[in-house]
Design goal:
The complex is a heterotrimer of chains A (179), B (733) and C (316). Chain A has 179 residues and is an alpha+beta fold. Chain A has 6 helices and 10 strands. The relative contact order of chain A is 0.26. Classes of the chains: A alpha+beta (179), B alpha/beta (733), C mainly alpha (316). Chains in contact: A-B, A-C, B-C. Bound molecules: ligand MGD (2 copies), iron/sulfur cluster (5 copies) and molybdenum atom (MO).
């Protein structure tokens, strides 16, 4: 069983938003909505500053509160790779999952259902990388099977310092940021 | 300011232009436009082409789904994109679907200033232009029609203007962009840095960026290699008054006072020379006038530079030694948009000299020597000789201008000296955002008998035109072949992916038809551009069908470094790297770079800096719904302390007022630690005043509008724009 | 200094979360109110008060049905993919409080109808004579009545607690992330219900009883709010910041003035004086209590959406 995850090298990421734009065209995201976005996280005082740039999206949490709280069974963990998905035609638009996600990764699609990053499962199932990963001009994003010790993602995690977002929320994100 | 500075807007009589609704569903609505004429088409097809959202010309593959353009990705065969585009290239889809696009030729109905338009047929438009051009030719000579053209799309129009008899063809990429850099490097090494830059970022062990904000400046290959350099653990030194994206990656960030880079460069060279850290063999072998140059550096100690630049002497020393430690794989990047303070060619020369000391020119990890494929030109008839020469640089006022100066043509249009300019063709350059002091541009326009603008959207410059010609966007047309000078030789083809949605036409077609109306058909002996391609490729011994299929033809690797056996050549008068420049001395300029402190602004005013945002190109992408969705307006960056002093809070709208009292459109404040307190920063190109740009109109402020002053580079005529100062005014005003 | 700039611009999410408007607080309030009313009317049945002609258990069950249906309507209006709402009833999701809630609601209706059957109003019996026959049969059996009373009380407790747990299950919203919220909403539902029934009760004895009960509920509610806030304040930094939203942040004026002052303390004082015959009974106190209960739901729902784990300084 594969367990899909992303490893993003913040040292390389320049925050160019190509990943954001690629998601919009690949997935036909309506104007004004984002499945992924960039966080520019700066600390310190000028000129002694530190900046981490992160391409963020749904973390496809291993312990996904958005799935647990869904009253309709619309939010679910896909059998392939543990990807968290939404069945549009089961979703009532109650927004419990929006309330539950500590990353504010979801939104209500103009057609009414809850929507978010799908890890481009339609591409992954064809053997392609997610659109955002495939487009990134700095090659800072990696997608793959975390259970396979030889995958790029596993090797990067084994060799570099890393963190996830809000580990204290207890959701076990499947996206790691390399320092 | 005169009333002229208030831009006027296109007003279309009748139900002319712009029926598509702008709004949240615009993109979807736009998707239903009869964009392909092939709506019955089903399934997926891909077309290789190359991108035109900027001038980098990345190889791309567009995908069409059920007859509608779906997405654009990089062409893996292309050495510029390496299969990955920048965000603008990815968002190029929105250029095709832009509901605000020009649709048909437009003719001004009344005298200029009335801003009333009628839709006309292409033939009517050509006939009107032809009459005006013939009459200008009779009365003032063919040189009196000038062409401003930016990008490869303008090639056939340039050909037309040359055939007509005008040498006055200019692009803002020289005097408003990289001109000073290329002049500085020519004076030193005898050659340009050119575009794409011949910088070997990928292999650099130490990379120095002086205001070159890679990561925001998204020239694709540069950014890809920048990330590779970081990934390879290269040392990165970033000099910028603003904590740019690149600064965030730096091993050494030098928060320099704006306009003092020459002082820093002199101090660096002082350290490298006095500590004898330079590449002594290289300098001994290739250098000319090194002793005089070295002696001139004596006073410029790091301690001297400290009060000028604000950079501590230890930091200057440490970074100088760092550069030397990695030589010759230390690349001091020459930057690209370098028209900053008026001493730009000399600053660029100082950068060239620092590279020369490090021995990086011609070396791996420094500057490679670009190569290209041999492709014979099309055998056109000779152009008519120009009797009067170019108008832009009378008496070689700017002796080191090696390209045409846009602002020189504007000056001649204003003054009639050295001879009058009565007609402008403008192709793919929004002069009101690109040239400094828009009031001068507008005054010059008022002197014209003819202004033709070829554009894809109703830009500000189109608003002033007599005739507006709507071009097909790059995804809908062929353009000239891109025979690139790069690390690897290749030829790239731009070809249509989808049909134009309305009556837009490609520029080759426009130029060719126009030639017919001007009696210049002999210069366009081919009927169709593919005939032209076939001819040239056959003459070069290449296969057009393969090019069509792959979008790219690549040649074998050739040596590009001295390390690969390439013989060093320096086409300067001395045949060597000119540390001391007799050329400059002869022309009455400093033969070695000299620092002059930049004049300060009025009290209570902040120096206005500007630059790029990764998702936009200049002023051309703000009505692209996909890209504007990623960033819909610009912000004015204000240091926390400056914000406090001016009572500004994050996110609030203000207006900027410059030293000449010009007030901007409203713009949001971004309170940040990421900038020096004495300057403010904004992204270039926003603040559109053309109402027909429904989506972009009034969003953010225009830096160009604040650039009422500029300092002209005495060496090459570049117009430096970082010499304006602004203060804050309430948004309601 | 930390500057966190995000490019995300999702409607309802950015720059500040606002996915639930008026509908959910109204739904939670009405749910809580009905829960309280079920407990009260169940208690009345349990105590055999339904035999009193003037007992408000005549009106309570059907009123509850109406109010609950109003609440359900509000909930329905909130759904953004409305016509798929039935999907909640094709599945049971044990980890989802909302799923529990929707099934509890399914049980609440029959319990309320059974309750109503014990004292069916005349406008029904006059039209459907068999109802009074059935009703008389049930009323004769005190075990059945007691059972219905207990069931109503139990379901009332479940419903009341559920309206709080619905929120407290969202660990992502620090303000809601307190197990006390269930108890708070139950108590608040009880106090609102007592006040509401107090307003509609015709029997002065019942009125006084309810006023006394309400004073108890209000006092308890004050204690629980205190515990709720102390719990947050003594937890992590984000929880403290969440509590500060109410204590001295943007929601403080509404919280202190309308929820605590006018919604609890003032009516508590007035009603204490009234039950001790120091002042005359006034409907103002119970009205304030009901409004306070409603505003409490609004404040908690809105402030909860604002409370965050990460604070974005600006988004562009
Ligand atoms: N104030 C200020 N001025 C600057 C700069 C700055 O940063 N600030 N930057 C300078 C630099 S570095 C440069 S290179 C120049 C750039 O200057 P320009 O090249 O003039 O750039 P844009 O402002 O984008 O104008 C491009 C115009 O071409 C149109 N266009 C786009 N695509 C097509 C097409 O396919 N066909 C046709 N016919 N038209 C098309 C666009 O709609 C737009 O009107 O500006 C310079 N001027
Ligand atoms: N996304 C995107 N990328 C682009 C373009 C685009 O339109 N959009 N345009 C392309 C073109 S044609 C060009 S020319 C390039 C331009 O891009 P670059 O040549 O990289 O940059 P500039 O716009 O000249 O410079 C902006 C930077 O210089 C800093 N700066 C300002 N004053 C000073 C100073 O006195 N000293 C120092 N050391 N730094 C200073 C500013 O803070 C800012 O970070 O970008 C190219 N890439
Ligand atoms: S495309 Fe890559 S470099 Fe650009 S913002 Fe996304 S992750 Fe970062
Ligand atoms: S990030 Fe949010 S939406 Fe995604 S799986 Fe985790 S909790 Fe669910
Ligand atoms: S909005 Fe849809 S996906 Fe989210 S919890 Fe409700 S039913 Fe489930
Ligand atoms: S994985 Fe696919 S859906 Fe998710 S952010 Fe990337 S492109 Fe968008
Ligand atoms: S750098 Fe970006 S916008 Fe420019 S040509 Fe390449 S992909 Fe297109
Ligand atoms: Mo440029």
């Amino acid at each position: 069983m594969a367990r899909y995850g992303m490893v993003i090298d913040t040292a390389r990421c320049v925050g160019c938003m190509d990943c954001v734009v690629a998601c919009k065209t690949e997935n036909g995201i309506p104007e004004g909505y984002d499945r992924d976005w960039i966080a520019y996280d700066t600390t310190g005082a000028f000129p002694t500053l530190h900046m981490e740039i992160r391409s963020e999206r749904c973390n496809h949490c291993e312990d996904p509160p958005c799935v647990y709280c869904c009253p309709c069974g619309a939010s679910h963990i896909h059998e392939r790779g543990g990807v968290v998905l939404v069945h549009h035609d089961k979703c009532s638009g109650c927004k419990a999952c929006i309330a539950a996600c500590p990353y504010d990764a979801r939104f209500i699609h103009p057609e009414g259902y809850a929507d978010k990053c799908t890890f481009c499962i339609h591409r992954v199932e064809q053997g392609l990388e997610p659109a955002c990963v495939a487009v990134c001009p700095t090659h800072c994003m990696h997608f793959g099977d975390l259970d396979d010790p030889n995958s790029t993602v596993s090797r990067l995690l084994a060799s570099r310092e890393q963190h996830t977002l809000l580990p204290e929320a207890g959701t076990k994100p499947q996206i790691w940021y390399l320092k | 300011m005169s009333a002229l500075s208030r831009r006027r807007f296109l007003k279309i009589s009748g139900a002319a232009v712009g029926a598509a609704a702008a709004g949240t569903a615009a993109l979807r609505a736009a998707g239903t436009l009869p964009s392909t004429g092939l709506s019955a088409e089903k399934g997926i097809r891909t077309v290789p082409t190359f991108c035109d959202i900027c001038f980098w010309k990345c190889g791309a593959i567009a995908t069409v789904r059920d007859g509608a353009l779906w997405k654009i990705e990089g062409n893996p065969l292309d050495p510029l994109s390496n299969g990955r585009l920048c965000p603008r290239g990815t968002g190029g889809v929105g250029a095709h679907y832009d509901p605000d696009r020009l649709r048909t030729p437009l003719l001004r109905k009344r005298s200029r200033g009335q801003e009333e338009w009628v839709e006309v047929t292409w033939d009517e438009a050509f006939e009107y232009i032809a009459q005006k051009m013939q009459s200008i030719k009779q009365r003032y000579g063919p040189e009196a029609v000038a062409l401003f053209s930016h990008g490869i799309g303008g090639n056939f129009l340039k050909h037309l203007l040359k055939a007509y008899g005008s040498p006055n063809i200019a692009a803002p990429s020289f005097a408003q962009c990289r001109g000073p850099r290329d002049a500085g490097f020519r004076l030193t090494f005898g050659e340009d840095v050119s575009s794409p830059e011949r910088t070997d970022i990928r292999n650099a062990r130490c990379l120095v960026l002086i205001g070159n904000h890679l990561g925001e400046n998204m020239h694709n290959t540069q950014v890809q290699e920048f990330a590779d350099a970081i990934g390879n653990g290269a040392s990165l030194i970033v000099v910028d008054p603003r904590y740019s994206i690149a600064a965030g990656k730096a091993s050494h960030y030098l928060p320099i006072k704006p306009g003092t880079d020459i002082a820093l460069l002199l101090a660096w060279m002082h350290v490298i020379v006095t500590e004898r850290l330079y590449d002594r063999d290289y300098v001994a072998q290739h250098g000319f006038g090194f002793e005089q140059f070295a002696a001139s550096l004596a006073p410029f100690t790091p301690a001297w530079a400290y009060p000028e630049t604000g950079i501590e002497p230890e930091v200057i020393e440490r970074t100088a030694r760092e550069m030397a430690a990695h030589k010759p794989a230390t690349l001091v990047h020459p930057g690209r948009h370098v028209t900053w303070y008026g001493d730009d060619a000399q600053r660029s020369r100082a950068i060239a000299l620092l590279n020369a000391l490090l021995g990086s020119w011609g070396r791996k990890g420094g500057f490679y020597t670009p190569v290209s494929m041999d492709l014979p030109p099309y055998p056109y008839p000779e152009y008519p000789p120009s009797v009067r020469g170019k108008v832009d640089n009378p008496g070689q006022k700017y002796p080191f201008a090696h390209e045409t100066i846009t602002t020189g043509i504007r000056e001649a249009t204003l003054t009639g000296q050295p001879y009058p300019i009565m007609g402008w063709w403008v192709y793919a350059t929004n002069l009101l955002h690109a040239l400094p002091n828009e009031a001068e541009t507008i005054k010059a326009i008022q002197n014209l008998d003819l202004l033709v603008v070829v554009d894809v959207i109703p830009s500000e410059i189109a608003g002033w035109a007599d005739v507006v010609l709507p071009e097909s966007v790059y995804l809908e047309r062929h353009d000239d072949l891109n025979v690139e000078w790069f690390r690897e030789p290749f030829i790239a083809l731009r070809q249509p992916v989808v049909a134009s949605p309305h009556d837009q036409k490609p520029n080759w077609w426009i130029a060719r038809k126009m030639a017919g109306h001007l009696g210049l058909s002999a210069y366009f002996p081919w009927n169709d551009i593919e005939e032209y391609f076939r001819y040239r490729l056959k003459a070069g011994g290449y296969d057009y069908e393969a090019l069509k299929k792959n979008g790219i033809l690549r040649g074998p690797h050739q040596p590009v470094y001295y390390e690969e056996g390439l013989a060093p050549t320096f086409p300067t008068p001395s045949g060597k790297i000119e540390f001391f420049s007799p050329q400059l001395q002869k022309a009455g300029f400093d033969p070695v770079p000299v620092y002059h402190r930049p004049p300060a602004g009025p009290p209570g005013y902040y120096r206005l800096l500007f630059g790029r945002a990764p998702v936009h190109s200049f002023s051309r992408t703000h009505s692209n719904r996909i890209l504007s969705d990623a960033m819909s307006e610009n912000e004015i960056w204000v240091h926390t302390q400056t914000a406090q002093q001016n009572g500004l809070t994050n996110g609030q709208y203000v207006r900027l007022k410059n030293q000449d009292g010009v007030v901007s459109n409203r713009i949001r404040v971004r309170v940040t630690e990421r900038i020096r307190p004495e300057c403010v920063y904004m992204v270039h190109g926003f603040g559109h005043t053309s109402r027909m740009l429904k989506h972009a109109f009034g969003k953010g402020a225009s830096d160009a509008q604040m650039v009422t002053r500029y300092a002209t580079d005495p060496l090459m005529g570049g117009t430096a724009m970082n010499v304006n100062f602004v203060t804050f005014a309430p948004a309601e005003a | 200094m930390r500057e966190l700039v995000s490019t995300r611009t999702n409607p309802m999410i950015d720059p500040a979360l606002h996915f639930w408007g008026w509908e959910i607080p109204v739904y939670l309030f009405l749910g809580g109110l009905v829960a309280g009313m079920m407990i009260l009317s169940g208690y009345f049945l349990f105590r055999g008060r339904h035999r009193e002609m003037s007992c408000s258990c005549l009106t309570l069950p059907l009123l509850s049905v109406a109010l609950l249906s109003l609440g359900m309507l509000a909930l329905f209006l909130d759904l953004s993919h409305r016509w798929y709402f039935w999907r909640m009833y094709t599945t049971f999701q044990p980890t989802s409080p909302m799923s529990w809630g929707s099934w509890i609601l399914i049980l609440v209706y029959p319990a309320l109808l059974a309750n109503a059957l014990i004292r069916p109003p005349a406008w029904i019996t006059s039209r459907l004579p068999w109802v009074s026959t059935l009703s008389a049969r049930i009323a004769k059996r005190s075990a059945a009545v007691k059972f219905i009373g207990i069931t109503n009380m139990m379901l009332g407790v479940l419903l009341g607690v559920y309206t709080g747990i619905l929120l407290s299950a969202f660990g992502a919203r620090p303000l809601w992330n307190s197990s006390i919220l269930g108890l708070l909403f139950l108590t608040s539902g009880l106090s609102s219900a007592a006040a509401f029934v107090h307003l509609i009760a015709s029997d002065p004895l019942e009125q006084k009883l309810l006023a006394k009960a309400d004073n108890g509920f209000l006092t308890l509610e004050l204690v629980i709010i205190g515990m709720f806030l102390i719990g947050l304040v003594s937890s992590t930094r984000v929880h403290l910041e969440a509590a500060l939203l109410l204590l001295n942040g943007p929601f403080a004026p509404v919280f202190w003035v309308f929820v605590i002052g006018l919604g609890i303390v003032l009516p508590l004082i007035v009603q204490s004086m009234a039950v001790n015959n120091k002042v005359a009974h006034t409907p103002v106190a119970p009205i304030l209590v009901v409004l306070g209960g409603l505003i409490l739901r609004f404040v908690i729902v809105q402030a909860g959406q604002v409370s965050h784990w990460t604070r974005v300084v600006s988004s562009n």
